[in-house]
Specification:
Layout lengths: L7 H8 L16 H14 L9 H15 L4 H12 L5 H10 L2 H7 L6 H9 L3 E3 L2 E2 L12 E4 L7 H10 L8 E4 L4 E4 L14 H9 L1
Antiparallel strand pairs: 1-2, 1-3, 3-5, 4-5
Helix pairs in contact: 3-9, 4-5, 5-9, 6-7
């Protein structure tokens, strides 16, 4: 399946929740979900009947929501699930943890990009180092103790400077620590489930792939 290239806001509307695909816009009143909530509430008050969704449909929607949240195409998303499924422990948590450990996601979580899409581009263009070595693979899996930092030349780019200023005012997940001034961060631990804000019930995703 090819990567979706249409309007990002349409994906959020399809899932009925914020997927944070548009950077700062998602936190503003311009967010399509925020603007549509009033209309949705009005329709509910009129008593319009809801379409019943099958058990399969519920699981499919949850899987699609998670895939879109991380901005991935199906083949790569499923491949990571297969890795999680072979690990010991809870498959759902393993899956979320692997998704969070992707380098593009970590760059985004540290605040050095306004969206995962932007983070992916920054990584692809070689702007980031992991433990001092250039890594241009967005799917690269970081480990506890890894240091992710912008290249010295890249720190002077207007985009990264601007993102770093915003990052300095934001709270990063507890499993990461950030030095916004240096545009550098460290993975201090692998994320626990309550440190991952993915808006899904991951067990439904596990059940979808297990069918």
């Amino acid at each position: 399946m090819s990567r979706y290239i249409g309007p990002s806001c349409r994906q959020c509307k399809a899932e009925g929740t914020k997927l944070f695909l548009k950077g700062d816009r998602c936190y503003s009143a311009k967010c399509a979900i925020t603007k549509s909530e009033a209309g949705a509430n009005a329709k509910m008050k009129k008593g319009r009947p809801r379409t019943k969704i099958s058990e399969y449909g519920i699981r499919l929607r949850e899987k699609q929501k998670l895939r879109r949240f991380y901005g991935m195409h199906e083949a790569q998303f499923h491949r990571i699930f297969e890795i999680a499924n072979k690990m010991t422990g809870q498959t759902g948590h393993n899956f979320l943890q692997l998704l969070e450990r992707r380098l593009d996601n970590v760059v985004y979580r540290l605040g050095f990009a306004t969206s995962r899409k932007q983070a992916r581009q920054l990584v692809l263009h070689g702007h980031f180092l992991v433990n001092g070595k250039r890594v241009d693979i967005p799917s690269f899996m970081v480990s506890a103790g890894d240091v992710v930092a912008a290249k010295e030349k890249s720190r002077e780019t207007a985009l990264l400077k601007e993102n770093a200023e915003v990052a300095a005012a934001r709270t990063v997940p507890q499993w990461l620590e950030v030095n916004a001034e240096k545009i550098e961060g460290k993975v201090i631990a692998l994320p626990a489930r309550d440190q991952i804000d993915a808006p899904v019930t991951e067990q439904l995703v596990v059940e979808f792939y297990a069918r």
